[in-house]
Specification:
Number of helices: 3
Structural class: alpha+beta
Largest sheet: 5 strands, antiparallel
Distance between the termini: 22 Å
Strand content: 35-45%
Order of helices and strands: HEHEEEEH
Helix content: 10-25%
Shape: globular
């Protein structure tokens, strides 16, 4: 499994926007560990908010694609983009701190 598999899985889904992994993130985290693949995306949430706006969240994590309808979640973090002061590197450092086996050696 590769990062691009997630892009393909969500290509027609308006809620998930694939983000290519920044090189700086790959200096902090492994691309794969224990069957889980690192990938990044922006989650667009327009359904849960009454204002009808696109509330975006940055999501970075390790997941496995089990089938077209099921993704098994591994370690990951997210940050709402409305008032977020974090960048992708901050999220990567947080995963590396909490899950050292997923960090680059």
């Amino acid at each position: 499994m590769k990062e691009s598999d997630f892009k393909e899985l969500w290509k027609d889904n308006k809620m998930y926007e694939h983000v290519p992994l920044p090189k700086s993130v790959l200096k902090i985290l492994k691309r794969q560990y224990n069957g889980y693949v690192l990938h990044a995306f922006i989650y667009h949430d327009t359904r849960k908010w009454s204002d009808g706006k696109d509330h975006k969240s940055m999501v970075l994590g390790f997941d496995k694609i089990i089938s077209a309808n099921y993704v098994e979640r591994g370690p990951g973090v997210c940050c709402g983009m409305d008032h977020c002061v974090h960048d992708w590197d901050d999220l990567a450092r947080e995963i590396a701190f909490d899950y050292p086996k997923y960090a680059k050696e």
